[in-house]
Amino acid sequence: MALYVTNTMTRRKERFEPLAPPDVKMYVCGVNLYGPAHVGHALSYVFFDVVRRHLEWSGYRVRHIQNFTDIEDRIVARAREEGRSVWEIAEEHIERFHREMASLNALREAISRWNRSMCSSAISHTDRPSSRARATMRSSMSVKFWMCRTR
Fold first, then answer.
1. What is the mean pLDDT of each run of 10 residues along the chain (151 residues)?
2. pTM (predicted TM-score)
3. Which of 112, 6, 102 lies closest to 64 in space, CA to CA?
4. CB-CB contact of 115 with 107 (8 Å)
């Protein structure tokens, strides 16, 4: 059974064709875990679990990568209140999240990425944004990115 996806650049439905068959790299933007997981987190995780299982059933080798937002104002505030590190709180929520998603029988991603590991890379991109992206640095040292569609 073929998989069709909407190409947001062309706004057309297209048949999924991997770049390097039979390998598929699936990067999923993960959850912002400043508290317990909720049904919205589960919906996203289970959805991509179904996509992954369909691709694997179709004969593809899937490398599933997901990031976690572990640097966020609410996490920082909680760390200050509790006298703990931001990373300690983020790890606690990520471990809990994985246990909760496992209870839904969802396959775990092959690789987990944390935003903290990508901060220097993201900030370096603000010095030289591409023609397709713009970024601004705010006084709080947070970086906001806008992706722009070019014709």
1. 88 92 90 82 91 95 85 84 89 88 88 56 46 44 42 43
2. 0.69
3. 112
4. no
Instruction: Parse the chain into domains and list their residue ranges.
Output: 21-147
Distance CA 108, CA 95 (A): 12
- What pLDDT sits at residue 141? 41
Query: Please, where are the H alpha helices in the chain?
Result: 39-57, 73-82, 86-102, 119-127
Tell me whether residue 62 is exposed, middle or buried, using C-beta atoms within 10 angstroms of its C-beta: 0 to 12, 13 to 18, 19 or more: buried
In terms of CATH architecture, what is 21-147?
A: 3-Layer(aba) Sandwich (3.40)
Q: How many residues does the chain have?
A: 151
What integer pLDDT is reported at residue 60 of this predicted model? 96
- Compute the distance between CA of residue 66 and CA of residue 28 in angstroms, rounded to an integer: 5
The two beta strands, 133-137 and 143-147, are antiparallel
Which residues neighbour 100 within 8 Å (Cβ) at sequence distance 6 or greater?
Answer: 37, 42
